[in-house]
Amino acid sequence: MLHATRFRFIVAWLFLLVVGSGVSDSALSEPGDPYLYVLGVTQDAGYPQAGCFRPHCMPGWKEKDRRLTASSIALINPGAGTRHVFDATPHLPDQLYRLEQEAPAGRYRLAGFFLTHAHIGHYTGLMHFGREVMGAQSVPVFTMPRMKAFLEENGPWSQLVSLNNIALEPLSDGDAVNLSGAVSVTPFPVPHRDEFSETVGYRIEGPERSAIFIPDIDKWHVWNEDIVALVRDVDYALLDATFFADGEIPGRAMSEIPHPFVVESMALFDSLTEEERSRVIFIHINHTNPILDRDSDEYREVIERGYRIAYEGMRLPL
Asked: By C-alpha distance, which of 178, 187, 235, 233 is closest to 214?
């Protein structure tokens, strides 16, 4: 017979595993229903990050199965036989392989990429469609106006356009792109460091459920939208969790790289009900952020307060 203390520990561990991993979401889907599939969860540079040999990065260098890729999600629609990907990350080769295991090309057409902005973790994977690698033909790439101009006017991306490796599809603020099977995708602008392009998030509508995807944004209070109301209005909110708290990067002013700290987001969202808090799924996590470590106190705090943390392979039915 299990000792009572050990039994309580096992029950608590199983609760964290199920709630933290989002396993319960998979049970909501029916065969043939569209769903979101998480391909990557980290900030642009992945985990471990290049040049980082500090203790928190070393497990990733020593154990390949602990490495994580940059934030990206796929919209998989079995009924339509299509796959759409949100952001083309530097880790696109690994992510396309995992997407192939989940939704193989024999049954699913790669129907396009929706880009959020021109920071390295969100578009540089397009290089793999060029003549040096895949030599792809007319891969649809959905972009806002400044992002479209950036790709058309700057090499090596302009070569992808001129050789027809990619086909740029223009997006407009608030205008929905209607996909097959009662699924739509709508871009909306968010404040961010827009050196080369505007930055957008996406609202993804399915037949039964909806999601917002905002991997990068400045502080919530500088946005002209109410993020709390948006969370209440959708079933899933995949939100920027780059840093856990101030002071996370020693010797660097974090005001130069503004993001909503996880502690700030949780304080803001604590006014939500328990069910509403479970809609918040933190993603785009920097290599310094302790919530990447499931054994950390910070990870446990996020889960115990009713929020979720994205993981590679997470499924969210629409």
From this structure: 187
Q: Are 111 and 161 in contact (CB under 8 A)?
A: no
HEC readout, 192-205 = CCCCCCCCEEEEEE
Task: Name the strands in the sheet holding 315-317, side by side, starting at the edge strand that comes first in the sequence.
Answer: 166-170, 139-143, 109-114, 82-86, 72-77, 35-40, 315-317
Domain range list for the chain: 26-317
Any alpha helices (H) in the chain, and if so which ranges? 4-21, 23-26, 58-62, 92-102, 120-123, 145-153, 157-162, 227-233, 262-269, 274-277, 297-304
pLDDT for 200-224, tens place per residue?
999 999 999 999 999 989 899 899 9
Contact 122, 44 (CB under 8 A): yes
Q: Report whether 30 contacts 209 (CB < 8 A).
A: no
Q: What is the pLDDT of residues 8-57, one digit of tens each?
A: 434 344 444 444 444 445 444 456 899 999 999 999 899 999 998 989 98
- Classify residue 264 as exposed, middle or buried by CB count within 10 Å of its CB (0-12, 13-18, 19+): middle
Q: Determine contact, residues 42/51, Cβ cutoff 8 Å.
A: no
Please give the model's pTM, rounded to 2 decimal places.
0.88
* Domain 26-317 bears CATH identifier 3.40.50.360: no
